[in-house]
Specification:
Blueprint (H helix, E strand, L loop, with lengths): L2 E7 L7 E7 L3 E7 L5 E7 L6 E2 L7 E4 L5 E4 L4 H8 L6 E2 L3 H40 L2 H16 L6 H14 L8 E5 L6 E3 L4 E5 H4 L5 H16 L2 H20 L5 H11 L7 H17 L5 H15 L9 H4 L4 H14 L8 H10 L2
Parallel strand pairs: 5-8, 9-11
Antiparallel strand pairs: 1-2, 1-7, 2-3, 3-4, 6-7, 10-11
Helix pairs in contact: 2-7, 4-13, 6-9, 6-10, 7-8, 9-12, 10-12
C-alpha cells in the first residue's frame, strides 16, 4: 500500500502534525502522533472531501467536512495519484494564471500592510492603550507595586540612614501636601544618579549629592523626580514597555518571554529613559514647584552645567544620570529652564531650615 507524507491539521487549533496518508477503498486513512505521543488514525470519506484543490502557487491542500475544516497539505504529484485511484472524485483547481502571476505581489502587499499595522500599533495604538490602563490603576496598587520594586532595587546597595532622614526633611520643606507619601532614600555609592519609582519612592546617590554646590540643585533634582511620580511617568513607561513587548512576543511567537519582562521591570527602573514629553513635563513641574516655594529655579540649571563640565573630563569617566541624558538634550533643557526663569520672575524666600539641612547633608 502506497503511503504519502503529508501535514495534517484538525481545524480546531493552529497545530500542524506530520502524518502519513494511505488510500483505502472508500476513504483516505491519515495516521499521526500528537504532542503527547499518542497515535491517531483519521479516516476521510471520499464523498465528504471538499472538491476544491488549491495548488500550483500555494501549498497544495485538501479540506474535509464542515467548518472548521480538517486540512491536509500534500506534495507534488499527489493529486494525479489521488484522481487515478478515485476516478469518481472530481477536483476543481481554483488557482488560475492571474493568481499565479500575482502571488508574490499579493504576498508583498500583505506583508507591507501587516508591517504597517504592526508599526502603527507599536508606536501609537498600543502605547496609547497602555497609558490609559496605567492611569486608571488605583494609587494604592501603584504604591504596592512601587514598594516591591523598591525592595528589589535596593538589595545591592547600602542606604545612608542619616542622610536619608535629612533628605526627607528637606523634601518636606518643599512639599507638604503630596498625593503620595513620598519617601526619599540616599544610597551611599559613587554612582552619579537619581531616579523615581511608582508610588512615591525617590532614590538619590551620594555620588550625585557630592557634585552639588548649592542646595537649590538638590531641590531641583527632588522636584524633578517628584514630577515623574506626580504624573505617574514610571508606571506609564513600564506599561508601555510591557505592552510593546507583548505585541512583539505575539508577532515572533515568543509568548513565554512575557514572564521575563515582569521580573526585569524592577531593575529597568534604574536605567529608565522617559520620553521627551515626560522629561519636559517633569522639568516644568520642578520649575513651578520651586517657583511657588521661593526657591531659585536656577538650581536645576546649575546642576546641569556642573555635570556637563564633569562629563567632559575624560579622566573622571562620569556618566550623566538618566534624567539628564534622556531627550531633549541637556543643552536644550538648560535653555528651556533659563527662559522659564526669565519669563517667570521668582520671588526668592530664605528658608533657614532647608539651609541647615543642606549643610548637614554636605558634611
Amino acid at each position: 500500500m502506497k503511503k504519502f507524507d503529508i501535514t495534517y491539521s484538525d481545524g480546531k487549533t493552529a497545530r500542524l502534525y506530520d502524518a502519513q496518508l494511505s488510500f483505502l477503498s472508500h476513504s483516505l486513512s491519515i495516521r499521526y502522533i500528537d504532542e503527547h505521543g499518542f497515535t491517531h488514525v483519521i479516516n476521510w470519506d471520499i464523498d465528504k472531501i471538499n472538491p476544491t484543490q488549491f495548488g500550483a502557487s500555494f501549498q497544495p491542500k485538501l479540506t474535509y467536512g464542515d467548518f472548521p475544516f480538517e486540512t491536509i497539505e500534500v506534495g507534488a504529484g499527489f493529486f494525479e495519484e489521488l484522481q487515478s485511484f478515485y476516478p469518481t472524485l472530481k477536483l476543481k483547481n481554483k488557482t488560475n494564471r492571474h493568481i499565479q502571476k500575482n502571488t508574490w505581489r499579493t504576498i508583498l502587499l500583505a506583508f507591507v500592510i501587516i508591517a504597517g499595522f504592526s508599526a502603527l500599533s507599536y508606536f501609537y495604538i498600543v502605547p496609547g492603550i497602555a497609558d490609559k490602563v496605567a492611569q486608571s490603576i488605583p494609587v494604592k496598587y501603584e504604591m504596592q507595586l512601587g514598594e516591591q520594586i523598591y525592595q528589589q532595587n535596593m538589595l545591592p546597595f547600602t542606604t545612608d540612614s542619616a542622610k536619608t532622614v535629612l533628605a526627607n526633611k528637606y523634601f518636606e520643606q518643599m512639599v507638604a501636601d503630596a498625593p503620595y507619601p513620598v519617601k526619599v532614600t540616599v544610597v551611599d555609592n559613587t554612582i552619579v544618579n537619581a531616579f523615581a519609582m511608582p508610588g512615591g519612592h525617590i532614590v538619590i546617590f551620594t555620588g550625585l549629592l557630592n557634585q552639588m554646590k548649592h542646595h537649590e540643585e538638590l531641590a531641583g533634582v527632588l522636584a524633578h523626580e517628584y514630577g515623574h511620580i506626580y504624573y505617574r511617568h514610571s508606571l506609564r513607561s513600564m506599561a508601555r514597555s510591557l505592552a510593546n513587548y507583548a505585541l512583539l512576543s505575539l508577532v515572533i511567537g515568543d509568548v513565554s518571554g512575557l514572564a521575563g519582562i515582569l521580573i526585569d521591570n524592577a531593575d529597568y527602573i534604574m536605567s529608565m529613559k522617559y520620553s521627551r514629553e515626560m522629561e519636559r513635563q517633569a522639568d516644568a513641574f520642578a520649575f513651578e514647584l520651586m517657583h511657588k516655594n521661593g526657591i531659585n529655579p536656577q538650581g536645576m540649571v546649575w546642576l546641569f552645567e556642573t555635570l556637563n563640565d564633569l562629563q567632559k573630563d575624560e579622566e573622571l569617566q562620569i556618566q550623566l544620570p538618566e534624567f539628564m541624558s534622556s531627550h531633549p538634550e541637556t543643552v536644550k533643557r538648560i535653555d528651556a529652564m533659563t527662559k522659564m526663569a526669565k519669563t517667570n520672575k521668582t520671588t526668592l524666600r530664605s528658608n533657614e531650615q532647608m539651609e541647615v539641612i543642606w549643610g548637614q547633608l554636605k558634611r
